[in-house]
Amino acid sequence: MAKKASKDYFGLGRLVSIILAIIPVTAWLLGAFTRFKEGKLVAGIIRLIGLGFVLWVVDLVLMIMNNRILRLLNV
User: Fold this and answer.
1) Burial label, 69 (beta-carbon count in 10 A; 0-12, 13-18, 19+)
2) Phi/psi at 7 (nearest 5 deg)?
3) CB neighbours of 31 closer than 8 A, spacing ≥ 6?
4) Backbone angles phi, psi at 33, to 5 degrees
5) How confident is the model at residue 1, as a pLDDT?
6) What's the rounded Cα separation, in Å, for the pair 15 and 67?
7) Rounded to an integer, what distance in angstroms lies between the CA atom of residue 69 and that of residue 64?
């Protein structure tokens, strides 16, 4: 039996995740929390202190297309 791939924003439904991604502050915070949850400390800090707007736009497009946020840095 294949394992179902987990989606971003804590496994919430697609519509809820898209709504949360539209709101800049929630997308910014949830993106950072998601990266911290994955154990990617540096990537989470970068999401909190820098590149917030650019990552928000990219995350919004990717959330609509495939329900995943951008994995820019895997550190």
Assistant:
1) buried
2) -100, 165
3) 47, 55, 56, 59, 69
4) -65, -35
5) 40
6) 9
7) 10
